[in-house]
Each structure stands twice: as structure tokens, then as C-alpha cells.
Amino acid sequence: MLKPGVLMPEDLKSAIELASEIFEKDMGACFPVFLSEKNIGNLLGVKDGNRVVSLFGMQPAKISIYGYTLKVGLIGSVCTHPDYRGAGFASRMLEMMQAKSIKMGISMFIISGTRGLYKRFGAVEFGCYHTAKILPDGEKTKVQKAYSKDVGKILSIHQKKTVRYLRSYDSFKAIFKSGYIACRPGETYLGEESYCTFTSIDNELHVLEYGGNKSEVLRIIRAVTAEKNKNYCVLHYDNSFDYPADKTTTFEGTAKIISSENFFSQLEGFFLERLSEREYKEFKNKASKLDNTELTKAVFNEGMDLGLEGIFPITLPDYGWDYI
């Protein structure tokens, strides 16, 4: 009887081959850190002989929220070969990964998918994210294309964001060198104090990550849009960018707090900077009556009034280079 387990380094090649076949792209090239020996302990799979026929991937990550660190698990590359579907492998591995992750101190899963598997698990769509078409008309700035030697500068700009993924230099350099952002070829352009990462989606130019000064970001986008002879560029951003949106939507995926204990331990300081101790205790008491799905909605999606106007929803960063 086939059953899920943690994959070993010798299983990595087969796991990448399965994911590449199912998602119809070179997943090893797209995710050089996620699908690697370094992360093999967080890849679950089902093997038939030496062949991986079902895969469930998680990559531990940290999000800085105004200086406080939230530990999350990024979930992706979840797939099963068509000949082995219907056995419930993915559901079993999701439960296994949840138990493993809670022991690792992870507070919530952020999942690159909205399929029924995740919704049955209790993951929800969340957040408020925007897109706007930026025209090439208007003030531009001098730009240069970024290469691996510029990773330090990009990270120094990224580091100034108040809400961001925490990135190690080595891991980010490996991801940057891959040339892929969100499974698409990407190019990053630098200004004096800002950067933008561009890709093409359905023959449209898009910016999936940016950092630095807002006005310079817009000038970079105009310059690159004109250089590429495009009529416009679609900028993806959250509320912190404060720009008129053409479209507002939720995060392109789902999320669920998997451990309220871990969550409150990691963000207690964040709340105590905004609430008195009495208010915080009252908030935790209300939150304790919610299940983890309801708590996720309340904290990240205003799914329930907890009597704390101005605190919620907490905004999480968009994926950008951290897409799994």
C-alpha cells in the first residue's frame, strides 16, 4: 500500500520531474531553493518504487510585520500523477505537513492555490491587493538592468519595507539568478534608490515586485515601458503604495492560521504597541472562541468584528520573488 512520507535527497530528481510534467514548466529551474536538497526535509511525497507519484511542498519563511517576525509555511508544487489520483494523498500530506509545521513554530500556511483541497482544509482568500495600468507618458528616470552583482543593493532597498518577506542573501541570490519570478522570466531594473521587477503575462508588461521611493518606482516603470515600446505596464501593489487602482482583488491564493498559540506568541509585541494590556487580553479572549479559519478571516480579512478599529486587517506582503 502506498503511503506518504518525507522525501530523501535521492528522490528530488523524480519529484521535480513529476512537478514539471504536471505544471508544464521546468519547476527545478523556477524554484532552485524550494525544490532543492536544502529544503528536502519539507517535501512530502508518495513513491511507487523509486518514482515520486504525488508531491506536497512547503518552504518555511519569515514575514516582518513592523519589526515583528511571523513564521509562515509557503505551500506549493502540490500535485499527483493522473494515474494515482483519488486516493487522498494530498489531503493526508496536508494534515501531515500541518502537524510538522506547528512543531517547527510556524503560525500559518500561505498557499499558492484556491482549489477545493485547501478550502476544505479551512484556508481562505484574504487581503486587499490592487493593480493599475501605468502609461509611459510623464516623468521618467535613468535605469539600468540589474544582475547578480546587484543583489545586495536590491536587498538593502527591500529591507526598508515595513511589511516584507525576510530574505537571506544566499537564498535570494539563487532565486534571482534563476531569472524566474512567479514561474515567468523576470527582469529587474534599478534607479538610484528603487527597483522594479518586470515580467510578461499574456503579452502584457507587469511589475510583480518593487521597492524604494514611490515616485521613483513610477518613473522606473514609465522608462522601462517606453524602452520596451509597450502602451502600458500593469503594477501589482498593496495598500501601502497609495495609488489609484484600476482593479482591486484578494491575494492570488489562500491562507490559514494553523496555530493560534504560535501566532499570538510571535505577534504579541505588534499588538501591545497598538493596544493596552487590558484591550489585548480582551482581544485574545474573543479570539480564543474562534476556530483557526474564523481567526484568519478576522485578522487578515475583517471577517469578524473584534472591536479593534484600525488594527485589522493586517496586510501581508504580496509574493513577488517569494512565490512558491
From TrEMBL:
Domain N-acetyltransferase residue range list: 1-150
InterPro entries given in the database record: Acyl_CoA_acyltransferase, GNAT_dom
Q: Which domain of life is it from?
A: Bacteria
Example of a GO MF term:
acyltransferase activity, transferring groups other than amino-acyl groups
Q: What is this protein called?
A: N-acetyltransferase domain-containing protein
